[in-house]
Write a structure and sequence with these properties.
Elements: E1 5-6, E2 12-13, E3 20-22, E4 33-35, E5 47-49, E6 54-57, H1 59-71, E7 74-76
Parallel strand pairs: 3-7
Antiparallel strand pairs: 1-2, 4-6, 5-6
Length: 77
């Protein structure tokens, strides 16, 4: 059986398919901070989770955001 993304014309492709990863983390400063509001010294990079209304930032979040850009993938926490 062929695997991939099926188009309406019945063809199959893996092109232009952005992979998305689910990442599990826990609050453990300085690697991951979790907050309802961003601190006054707003971090350069952060992730906002719409489901929980929480902001995530810290070393690991910076790393994840950098990997997301370089690898052209998405992620959810």
């Amino acid at each position: 059986m062929k695997q991939g993304l099926y188009a309406f014309d019945g063809s199959i492709t893996n092109k232009n398919v952005k992979k998305k990863y689910r990442i599990i983390t826990m609050e453990e400063p300085p690697f991951v901070f979790k907050s309802k509001e961003l601190p006054e010294n707003e971090p350069d990079k952060y992730h906002y989770d719409e489901k929980t209304g929480m902001y995530y930032y810290g070393y690991c979040i910076d790393l994840i955001l950098e990997l997301e850009q370089r690898m052209k993938v998405g992620f959810t926490l």
